[in-house]
From TrEMBL:
Coiled coil: none annotated. Keywords: Cell projection, Cilium, Flagellum. GO terms for biological process: regulation of cilium movement. This is Cilia- and flagella-associated protein 298 isoform X2. Belongs to the CFAP298 family. PANTHER family: CILIA- AND FLAGELLA-ASSOCIATED PROTEIN 298, PROTEIN C21ORF59. It comes from Panthera pardus (Leopard).
């Protein structure tokens, strides 16, 4: 029970496959399958088996994974403990409305079965949760960087208001016409 990891790569690959985002959950979501407690227990059993393969000596008693498997995890004093809300103190919110337990979800959303909503859980008495930002912070930074660069380019263009290039021969509008008429080097002033 020292938590020494196995040297066998097969076990490590099995555990990686079990915990990856491409596992059973994504396929079930695409197929529209509802999750049951039996499916959750089966997935936990598979994870237990994968941990037993990767750690043949077993996990130490203080390991959070072992405590979760034995349902002894104590979240008091941790950040995760602040996120746990008891069922009696929880409220569901959607579209700045509290979803009452006595009403059906179709009373709020309608009868269309293909409607997807994102509801938020909040502790009772805290009011509606904060709204999601329209754009993420990374997108906002990129947008501000783009507009800053654009503003710098416009400043440079305003500063570079030099008209001396208009007197050069390549900027003459009638140069082509004079070339074809054969009057390109005629000077009207006497020498």
């Amino acid at each position: 029970m020292n938590g020494v990891k196995s040297v066998y790569p097969v076990g490590a690959r099995y555990l990686k496959r079990m915990t990856s985002a491409e596992g059973m959950g994504k396929k079930q979501v695409e197929a529209g399958v509802c999750v049951t407690m039996e499916m959750v227990k089966d997935a936990l059993d598979q994870l237990r088996g994968a941990v037993m393969i990767v750690y043949p000596m077993g996990l130490p008693p203080y390991d959070p994974i072992r405590m979760e498997f034995e349902n002894k995890e104590d979240l008091s004093g941790t950040q995760a403990g602040l996120n746990v809300i008891e069922e009696s103190k929880a409220q569901l919110w959607w579209a700045a409305k509290e979803l009452r337990r006595t009403k059906k979800l179709s009373d709020y959303v309608g009868k269309n079965e293909k409607t997807k909503i994102i509801a938020k859980i909040q502790q009772r008495g805290q009011g509606a949760p904060a709204r999601e930002p329209i754009i993420s912070s990374a997108e906002q930074k990129q947008l501000m960087l783009y507009y800053h660069r654009r503003q710098e380019e416009l400043k440079k263009l305003e500063e570079n208001d030099d008209d001396s290039c208009l007197n050069s021969p390549w900027a003459d509008n009638t140069a082509l016409k004079r070339h074809f008429h054969g009057v390109k080097d005629i000077k009207w002033r006497p020498r």
